[in-house]
Recover the amino acids of this structure.
């Protein structure tokens, strides 16, 4: 086998592309990853097949260019996703893979709202079935043990169907929904594919990132190169990001994020089966089943889903920034992998004091650890990837950074 020697890339990795494109690599992806992952996305092992295929050598610049030039419009397949952030078990069977539990009783599983369903992806292992045929047709199904949950975009129509509760949410896509990620499909779904995750990760590949080519791999039966992104900033909790890229067409097949602390991947999503032929037309057809409860138009569930997508879109849309900047309701400190988002807790100053009362206070003490600094005191909440500091004055600091970085940010804000 002819291996690919690691080739570090710094500075102008884009092979002479415009200065505007060069600037795009400084998006604050770590904060976006923190927001999406902590809030909803569940991602991990898409089993890479055994063996390392013998492929021609390729530079990191050329592999990035191969991804950028890829223009696959049709595909179908199965994506296995898991999140291992070290979060405590969540209520409602999260992580168990079931979507229908409790639906008949009208509980949390009774709504077909994307927001209510996709929060189940915060932990555990899940399976998605995906299909796309150009910018106007996409389908994503979350496969549960006893029921499935499906989102379908077909032209002007967007449907969400929960088979467990036999409920449907339907609304019309706004003009301008295109490129395979219509605004009506929440960001949780838009980002739960290797392609979208790789796109976000590559935006971080600036001066704060080392980009190399690793060993070759087999993913979903296809030969792949592996692009490796490693943060250079010491305060980041991200160890590395590895993107398996289809050697034939440049489509990212697998995305793996490993924490600096080691252990299994915290985020790892990829195809276990993929086919680049055009899916059958009826894949994107949907008629509400007999007896289904249908909510049409911009009802409560539709509004919640739309707002949910907007909120996460604000995080994903963090632009090039130096020092600090207000983005999507968050005040962003720092840049690159050590970006930290800050906001005020509900109730503003003193909000934390209200939260600290009674049972809520006991829960905070059990989930977080008390910390002090020049800023005063507060509670630190940690996962394997994302950490958050809630100070006594009601300010929240959150990012894919270590404890000391959060405390330093809080201390600096008080000076």
């Amino acid at each position: 086998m002819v291996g690919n020697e690691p080739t570090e890339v710094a500075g102008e990795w884009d092979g002479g592309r415009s200065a505007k494109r060069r600037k795009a690599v400084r998006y604050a992806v770590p904060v976006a990853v923190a927001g999406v992952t902590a809030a909803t996305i569940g991602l991990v092992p898409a089993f890479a097949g055994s063996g390392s295929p013998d492929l021609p050598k390729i530079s990191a610049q050329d592999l990035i260019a191969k991804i950028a030039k890829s223009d696959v419009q049709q595909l179908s397949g199965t994506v296995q996703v898991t999140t291992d952030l070290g979060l405590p078990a969540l209520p409602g069977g999260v992580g168990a893979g079931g979507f229908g539990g409790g639906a008949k009783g009208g509980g949390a599983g009774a709504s077909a709202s994307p927001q209510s369903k996709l929060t189940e992806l915060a932990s555990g292992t899940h399976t998605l079935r995906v299909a796309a045929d150009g910018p106007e047709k996409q389908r994503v199904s979350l496969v549960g043990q006893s029921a499935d949950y499906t989102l379908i975009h077909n032209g002007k129509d967007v449907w969400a169907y929960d088979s467990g509760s036999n409920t449907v949410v339907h609304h019309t896509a706004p003009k301008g929904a295109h490129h395979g990620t219509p605004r009506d499909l929440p960001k949780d779904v838009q980002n739960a594919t290797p392609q979208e995750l790789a796109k976000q990760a590559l935006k971080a590949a600036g001066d704060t990132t080392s980009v190399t080519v690793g060993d070759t791999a087999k993913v979903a039966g296809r030969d792949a190169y592996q692009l490796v992104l490693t943060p250079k900033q010491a305060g980041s909790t991200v160890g590395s990001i590895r993107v398996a890229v289809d050697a034939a067409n440049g489509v990212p097949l697998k995305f793996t994020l490993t924490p600096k602390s080691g252990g299994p991947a915290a985020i790892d999503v990829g195809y276990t089966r993929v086919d680049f032929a055009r899916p059958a037309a009826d894949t994107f057809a949907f008629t509400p089943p007999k007896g289904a409860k249908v909510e049409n138009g911009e009802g409560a569930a539709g509004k919640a889903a739309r707002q949910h997508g907007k909120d996460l879109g604000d995080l994903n849309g963090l632009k090039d920034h130096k020092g600090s900047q207000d983005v999507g309701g968050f005040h962003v400190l720092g840049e690159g992998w050590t970006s930290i988002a800050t906001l005020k807790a509900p109730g503003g100053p003193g909000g934390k004091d209200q939260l600290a009362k009674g049972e809520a206070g006991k829960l905070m003490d059990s989930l977080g650890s008390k910390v002090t600094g020049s800023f005063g005191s507060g509670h630190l909440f940690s996962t394997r990837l994302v950490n958050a500091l809630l100070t006594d004055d009601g300010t929240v600091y959150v990012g894919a950074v270590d404890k000391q970085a959060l405390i330093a940010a809080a201390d600096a804000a008080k000076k």
User: Anything to note?
Assistant: DSSP finds ten helices and 21 strands in the chain. Residues 1-50, 90-110, 177-190, 304-322 have pLDDT under 50 and may be disordered. The CA atoms of residues 60 and 368 lie 41 Å apart.
